[in-house]
Amino acid sequence: MPEQNDAPKVRCELHLEFDSNESAEKVHRSVELDNQGYIVTRVDGRVIHAEIEADSLNSLLHTLDDFLACTGVADKIMAKKD
After folding, report:
1. I want to staple 12 with a disulfide (CB 3.0 to 4.6 A). Which of 29, 30, 32, 52 is the partner?
2. What is the pLDDT of residues 31-69, one digit of tens each?
3. Is residue 48 within 8 Å of residue 19, measured between CB atoms?
4. What distance in Å separates the CA atoms of residue 16 and residue 10, rounded to the nearest whole number?
């Protein structure tokens, strides 16, 4: 009988493009701490690459929604500072 860890995973990959390398770096730094254990992220130029893996579609959607909300807020805050 397979163990629970062998259950199929649900995966999602995001590529969020920003106006500048600096903006991408700042947004990434502001949300990176909350991502640990849930999302693997990296910055490549103006793009934040994010990979999410979850045990269920509902869990993936919850994580995705939270990540997009946090990056959206960080981006809006940075835009007001410029």
Report:
1. 52
2. 988 777 889 999 999 999 999 999 999 999 999 999 999
3. no
4. 20
CA distances from 42 to 48, 71, 82 (A): 6, 13, 23
**Which of 3.30.428.10, 3.40.50.300, 3.30.310.50, 3.40.50.1000 would CATH assign to domain 4-81?**
3.30.310.50
Give dist(CA 69, CA 28) in Å, integer.
Answer: 13
Task: Find out whether 40 and 28 touch, Cβ atoms under 8 Å.
Answer: no
Stated pTM of the model: 0.82
